[in-house]
């Protein structure tokens, strides 16, 4: 049991800004257990909508418990700031790892392990009648123990309404700060028609995430929103890039536009050429290509369920002895920075706070 007493926590350094600048994540040590944790500090201010989404995230995480879903440990409120404590996933998010270390995409076996564990999380969520609605690399967290956890539950929606399970939902998930989440959403969810959408929309998002992991780039990221919507509805979809599927010939401008070599490599022609060469000389397995094709089917009824996908031949390559951190060995874990002025100043400030433990808060 984690206490909401701030004196039990020693902040060590800033890890990241997130949620469009609404929150900052700090690494910390929970002193009673000498355990590394993450503390997310939300600047809620007077925005009732943001406060509601954050509260929904906490309440959903308290309700759902699975080894592959980021757990909630405790929270405390001070003024208009909320502090939420979670385990520290010290390799960061898959998006962080791709941007910093693997601009050309992760090794196939690493992709298999991550996708399997995210599928286990989705299998559990769907059995609890939840749709995640935001499966993406920035919401998949890793640590040096080989643990893979899905976060981002503030976008999740329950299919249970007034005690009855709905066959479909019709509402869009809440927008993020730059509408980036639209790139991962399924065609049927974006269409917003009478047919609605169900948990199979998460399977499509997993397909976009699959290409994100393997290619390093975010599909659709440089396509204007209207064009991306039109292309998805027409059945256009991203693909895994290797020597068998790499679209040749393309000039550097077309390459950058299609596959966003912007993420982590900048706009330089040299960076574009390097990625182009990396894709052209590698060969991903046929099973990987077939998996991506299944996940990205335009018709949601043709997509397998999470349970069915766990039996896909692609995952047969994973052995009991495979250890994810060793497959991505160049990734450096988050380490405390004793000279992080921001963490030191916040530690000094909150040591003087009167903390209120609650998740039933209302700004």
What does this structure look like?
This protein is of the alpha+beta class and 363 residues long. Helices cover 35% and strands 15% of the residues. It has 13 helices and 12 strands. The strands form 4 sheets. A 5-stranded antiparallel sheet has the order 1-2-3-5-4. Strand 2 and strand 3 (35-43) form a beta hairpin. Helix 5 (200-215) packs antiparallel against helix 10 (286-295). The two termini are 27 Å apart.
In short:
This protein is of the alpha+beta class and 363 residues long. The protein has 13 helices and twelve strands.
Largest sheet report = 5 strands, antiparallel
**Average pLDDT over all residues:** 85
Total helices: the number is 13
> Helix fraction?
25-40%
State the secondary-structure class.
alpha+beta
> What is the chain-wise order of helices and strands?
EEEHEEEHHEEEEEEHHHHHHHHHH
The gross shape turns out to be: globular
List the helices and strands and how they pair.
Layout: E1 9-18, E2 23-30, E3 35-43, H1 48-63, E4 74-78, E5 81-87, E6 92-93, H2 94-100, H3 108-127, E7 130-131, E8 140-142, E9 148-150, E10 157-158, E11 160-161, E12 164-165, H4 187-191, H5 200-215, H6 225-234, H7 252-259, H8 262-265, H9 269-280, H10 286-295, H11 306-309, H12 324-327, H13 341-351
Antiparallel strand pairs: 1-2, 2-3, 3-5, 4-5, 6-8, 7-10, 8-9, 11-12
Helix pairs in contact: 3-5, 5-10
């Amino acid at each position: 049991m984690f206490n909401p007493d701030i004196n039990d926590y020693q902040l060590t350094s800033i890890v990241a800004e997130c949620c469009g600048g609404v929150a900052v994540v700090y690494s910390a040590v929970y002193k009673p257990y000498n355990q590394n944790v993450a503390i997310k500090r939300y600047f809620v201010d007077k925005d009732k909508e943001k406060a509601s989404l954050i509260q929904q995230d906490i309440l959903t995480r308290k309700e759902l418990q699975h080894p592959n879903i980021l757990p909630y440990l405790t929270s405390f409120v001070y003024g208009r700031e909320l502090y939420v404590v979670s385990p520290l996933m010290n390799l960061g998010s898959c998006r962080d790892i791709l941007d910093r270390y693997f601009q050309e995409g992760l090794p196939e076996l690493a992709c298999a392990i991550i996708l399997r564990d995210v599928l286990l999380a989705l299998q559990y969520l769907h059995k609890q009648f939840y749709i995640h609605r935001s499966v993406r690399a920035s919401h998949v967290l890793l640590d040096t123990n080989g643990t893979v956890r899905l976060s981002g539950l503030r976008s999740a929606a329950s299919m249970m309404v007034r005690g009855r399970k709905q066959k479909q939902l019709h509402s869009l998930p809440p927008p993020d700060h730059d509408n980036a989440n639209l790139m991962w959403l399924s065609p049927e969810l974006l269409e917003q028609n009478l047919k609605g959408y169900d948990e199979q929309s998460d399977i499509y998002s997993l397909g976009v995430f699959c290409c994100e992991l393997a290619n390093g780039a975010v599909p659709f990221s440089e396509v204007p929103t209207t064009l991306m919507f039109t292309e998805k509805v027409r059945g256009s979809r991203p693909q895994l890039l290797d020597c068998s599927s790499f679209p040749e010939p393309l000039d550097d401008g077309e390459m950058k536009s299609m596959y966003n070599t912007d993420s982590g490599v900048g706009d330089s022609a040299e960076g574009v050429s390097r990625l182009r060469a990396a894709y052209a000389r590698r060969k991903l397995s046929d099973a990987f290509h077939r998996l991506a094709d299944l996940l990205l089917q335009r018709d949601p009824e043709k997509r397998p369920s999470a349970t069915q996908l766990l039996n896909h031949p692609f995952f047969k390559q994973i052995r009991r002895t495979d250890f994810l951190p060793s497959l991505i060995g160049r990734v450096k874990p988050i380490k405390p920075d004793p000279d992080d002025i921001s963490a030191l100043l916040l530690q000094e400030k909150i040591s003087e706070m009167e903390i209120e433990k609650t998740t039933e808060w209302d700004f």
